[in-house]
Write a structure and sequence with these properties.
49% helix, five-stranded mixed beta sheet, alpha/beta, 212 residues, Beta-carbonic Anhydrase, Chain A
């Protein structure tokens, strides 16, 4: 968003959203295939993939994968962490719509993972209880990496630790989805559902899918 129109208050931000929605509604009368699908989606949906992604504003999932209305069932939460509500949402989409693919999408420079790394490097770091709950969910994937990094007594390379931690966090979320839900585990074991991890690079725009 250009700096000259960036809102300075919540009310100004609200007005920008209202204006944006008005433009979207006006666009529904054009021949754009994306918006032309809207009427058929009113009563049902058939998403081709379920994406568990981060809330980061720089990672708009539909844009990253060049998909339109109704194509993706998206759950976004800071740090793409797995909690009961996220598992339930994925179970719903997989069972209700028969969607065959789940992608856990992390990204470079993730703020939530950064917060966890900083908390390990500096235990005096304080967060609100709710933010701490997110950090605590990420911590298991980062802790061993931090222990290895500090085992030789040298200073920790925070950038390298963050990069490795982002991948580890994605892999942990994939494992939690595969083994933390009987419904998803059954679908995965029967070949009806594929759960994979991926990372989006903010610099290049490329998504790298992680190998097991």
């Amino acid at each position: 968003m250009p700096n000259d129109i960036r809102p300075k208050t919540g009310q100004e931000a609200l007005e920008l959203l209202k204006q944006g929605n008005a433009r979207y509604v006006d666009s529904l009368t054009n021949t754009d295939p994306c918006t032309q699908r809207r009427p058929e989606l009113i009563s049902d949906q058939d998403p081709l993939a379920i994406i568990l992604g981060c809330s980061d504003a720089r990672v708009p999932v539909e844009i990253v994968f060049d998909q339109g209305l109704g194509d993706l069932f998206v759950i976004r939460v800071a740090g793409n962490v797995v909690a009961p509500s996220q598992i339930g949402s994925i179970e719903f989409a997989a069972e209700k719509f028969g969607t065959k693919l789940v992608v856990v999408l992390g990204h470079s420079n993730c703020g939530a993972v950064t917060a966890c790394v900083e908390a390990l490097i500096n235990p005096e770091q304080n967060y609100t209880p709710n933010l701490q709950s997110i950090v605590d969910r990420i911590r298991p994937s980062v802790y061993n990496l931090h222990e290895l990094a500090t085992a030789n007594g040298q200073d920790v390379d925070a950038d390298e630790l963050l990069e490795r931690s982002i991948s580890a966090n994605v892999r942990m979320s994939v494992s939690q989805l595969k083994h933390g839900s009987r419904a998803l585990e059954d679908l995965t074991n029967s070949g009806q559902l594929l759960i994979v991890g991926a990372e989006y690079d903010l610099k290049t725009g490329k998504v790298r899918f992680l190998e097991d």
